[in-house]
Amino acid sequence: MPMTTSPSPTPPAGDALPLPKPFRDPISPEEFREIATATPGRTILLLRHAQRPSIAKDDPTFGEHLGLTEAGEQAALDLGRRLRGLGPSAFAASPMRRTRETARTVARGMERHDALVHDAPEAGLGGLWITDLAATHRQYAEEGSAAATDRYLRDGRFDGYRSVADGTRRMADWFATTDFGERHALVFSHDIFIAAFLQGLGVRQFDSAHWVGYLQGAALAQDSDGSWSAFYCVPDKLNFTTAFFQ
Q1: Domains in the chain: how many in total?
Q2: Domain presence at residue 172
Q3: Has residue 98 been placed in a domain?
Q4: What is the β-pairing status of strands 4-5 and 178-179?
Q5: Do 87 and 37 touch, CB atoms closer than 8 A?
Q6: What is the pLDDT of residue 130?
Q7: Region of poorest pLDDT, from 46-50, 113-117, 221-225, 238-242
Q8: Model pTM greater than 0.85?
Q9: Which of 110, 124, 150, 212 would you call most buried, defined as having the most Cβ atoms within 10 angstroms of its Cβ?
Q10: φ, ψ (nearest 5 deg) of residue 210
Q11: Angle, nearest 10°, between helix axes 133-143 and 145-155?
Q12: Strands, E, within the chain: which ranges?
């Protein structure tokens, strides 16, 4: 079943859907599965792709054609095994090779060998976060990726990006109003969008020394009243701090 955008729920006074309630303590994939099983509404797991080779600094596509390393493929397979029993789940990924490979490998680990991976440009270089890809690449080249990323998350603004607040609102509304075809959805994306989203929701602060690692991300759960909760989901709760790198 293809993803569709459902009619927007009736917004509260002030014309915007309420943002998910943030929970600051990290959760494991197994804890997410337990939350998903107990949750009466939908759940979404927004994860960074698994390990890929380094991106060349002069690559204007941000490594569009890079796949997973052998270690990355194994980690994605292991994550899928840990998520077995989640229930009927849809898979979506930004239209980059590494996110799509991650989605397929996680699905394989979940024994969902026939799973379709839907294209989700909203989770990649599409319109939810980036407004001018050339300006973004130019700013990274001039300032350096780590410094530019730190400034964006500190100040909330960056050339070619929507503000952290605006991007967070757009992503939260997209999740709330999109029918992924199943009650649970696994969406694979990229570190900067996930860091900005989690920070914008108030779940966690990020910088280049405390970054979103591979297969880490945001877990969202919808209650019976339609409200959402947000968590930071990590493969290893005892060792999840990682530094930003190219």
Answers
A1: 1
A2: yes
A3: yes
A4: antiparallel
A5: yes
A6: 92
A7: 238-242
A8: yes
A9: 212
A10: -135, 90
A11: 110
A12: 4-5, 21-22, 43-48, 89-93, 117-119, 178-179, 184-189, 217-222, 228-233
